[in-house]
Amino acid sequence: MEVYDVLIVGGGPIGLAAALEAKKNNLKYVIIEKGTVANSIYNYPLYMTFFSTADRLEIDEIPFITAKPKPGRQDALEYYQSIARQKKLNIRSYEKVLNIQKTDFFEIETNKHNYLSQNVIIATGFYDIPNWMDIPGEDLSKVKHYYTEPYPYAFQDVVVVGSSNSAVDAALEIYRKGGRVTMIIRKNEISNSVKYWVKPDIENRIAEGSIKAFFGAELLEVTPDSVIFRTKNGEKNEIKNDFVLAMTGYLPDFEFLKKIGIDLNNECLNPTYNPETMESNVPGIYLAGVVCGGKDTHLWFIENSRIHAKQIIKNIADKQPVSNI
Prior knowledge:
CATH superfamily of the largest domain: FAD/NAD(P)-binding domain
Distance between the termini: 14 Å
Helix content: 10-25%
Number of helices: 8
Number of domains: 2
CATH class of the largest domain: Alpha Beta
Largest sheet: 7 strands, mixed
Structural class: alpha/beta
Number of strands: 19
Shape: elongated
CATH topology of the largest domain: FAD/NAD(P)-binding domain
């Protein structure tokens, strides 16, 4: 069986960056991606705008050209997928890694094939597993943990849970398409991490009453035609409801990380790795991108984790002989 120098799990921006570095260092590599290239970005809301400017999203110094001040979802998809096409990167799409174990080499089992590799890079992101609320009724079909576009919610009573960028974007877009929006927010104010050009908009819509908001509140239960929540004063309140958008965040696949031997620490389940080389506690398995943050998914994003690719590939190239390509 063919032995790779490095197998990369995840075909998002950081996984692509790692592949480009591997290619420049004449390392035999393959990317295994469970969906399409840049799959997490593909699943973002259709009209999402990045906080970062285009130059901060570039990988391998390949220019990200867009006429907009800040790129959107479609711009990013075109950029990253065009890199994969133009650079002819070795990507196996729609293939999911099931297990990784070490013998003489790392044996990687997927739902389609088995692979052998000297090293493995985990660049899987965090967008696949919702941060569940664990409340009665969360399994009802009216409850959505992902938001795509506002049109299905026009003229409906919609509860948006949270005050992050995704929650605020959903609330504003649905309100402007005729939805009757109520926000249930644990904090006492809109998050300071919300995009600076959007934050005044949501605060003004709340102040004028166009969007209702309950701060310091907690959703307790979802029923087929209502929601029940606890207000800041500790009182229970029930309101009519058609849909719930639980924008409560997403998490890395911690079970997969534990299964392959990665140590997870403290309540935030921060994985163990060397910040200089990004090598985990399992020699030969490296972590890259937002997966490094555990539950603190806000710590890493594209623009500050691009460097992981260079750190990892340099360490691999320095310590092992190169396979014949």
